User: What shape does this take?
Amino acid sequence: MFYFWKRSQVPIKVPIRISKIDNLIIFLICILISLVSSYKFQLLSSLQKSDNINLLLTFTEVLISCWILILVSKRENPIITSRQIILIILLLLAVQAIKVTFPSTISPLSIIVPPALIISQGMGTITALTWVSIASLNWPEYAIPINNTLFFISLVCASVVSVLGGRIRSRAQLLQLSIIVPLGALFSQWILIGGNQVSILWNQELDISNNKIFSECLLLAIIMLLTILFMPIFESIFGLLTKARLLELADKEKPLIRRLSIEAPGTYEHTLLISCLAEEATRMIGGDIDLVKTGALYHDIGKLHAPNWFIENQDGSKNPHDEIDDPIKSAYVLQAHVDEGLKYARKNRLPKPIADFIPEHQGSLKMGYFLYKAKEKDLNFDDSDFRYKGPIPQSKETAILMLADGCEAALRAMNINASDSKALEIISKIIFSRQKDGQLDDSDLSIGEIFLIKRAFLNVWKRIRHRRIQYPTSKNNTFS
Ligand SMILES: [Fe+2]
Ligand SMILES: [Fe+2]
Assistant: This one.
């Protein structure tokens, strides 16, 4: 009873499964990180008992830190893939290896801040902050006395980059960040250390000159700019979906979207309205708005293979389904809009989270009209012939798109004089039918969230209704 109550109130996120081989690779990299981090103890020729304990402690501490990092990344981003986890820990391995190789020359600024930018952009702020705290552990103090001020400034810069990196929505803002952060680091070092070589914060004697401060910050700016330059490569190798990439894909001048607007104008209009419905609903439940907006634009891209087979593009002309008069073939054409959509997605290298909207917006829904026709004709068929192949929505965003897709035509067709309660009743009916059919089972939408989605759809409908009301004009038809 308590479980069902909790399930209805709080959304439970289930992380996606990672294959055994990927788990093994991740585990081996974590072991490698722990070995590299405890390298200094292994180098000691005559290991004392206390060194042995320290070696074991460092090894275990780093291994547990890696495990916590993976847990946090999965918690923040349940659809994180094994490739992305591997990227996070490979960056950690690289940092630990650099620390051990160049203990006296490398600055924490240039090795902690740029990876924080990649992680916050691709995986989120909390994962990036966790990564920064773990990467700051095990600094090789044995080689040089640690510069606390520089270390403190590095942590502040990395935290700023982690927080802002997760919110940045364009490459231009990324460029601004890569200039502002090194400048901030430069000024704060000048203020806190300056030429007197004594840290204001820790009263620590420092072997650091103004030239060194400047060159360190310049190096940080260069590495950050290079990171931004190579970001598209990271995006394609590790399947990262940054905000900037999402917004680029949502550009309506993209060839695939332009083709949709020219070759299937009805589908394009349908796509725009669905995008509005899904955006409003996702905002209400606190989901990923940019993801759902972009996913909505591409969800029916497969209709490009035969636009006139879909009612919204028929424009009063003959319906090819009536001409073939074969419900089974018609069902095949409907399924083809999903299969062809996935082919378009592969050809145009759409990221997986966007391509997922193509099959999941249809889930395993029944093709009700053609099923009815087949029954009417008394054909010999299997029920699965009239169901989409799935899978059912695996995330809240794809589930919202499925619900928006179901409600769009009904809301568009609704009388402008219909009351709010009537509109809400129709929305609820459509959503309930999807729920009853088990289409939302894997999406983790709670009952509370479904309620909010209904309200969001109603709000959008009110906006559409307002747009359709004719404004009164003056007698001579001039507008003020
Ligand atoms: Fe569709
Ligand atoms: Fe659609």
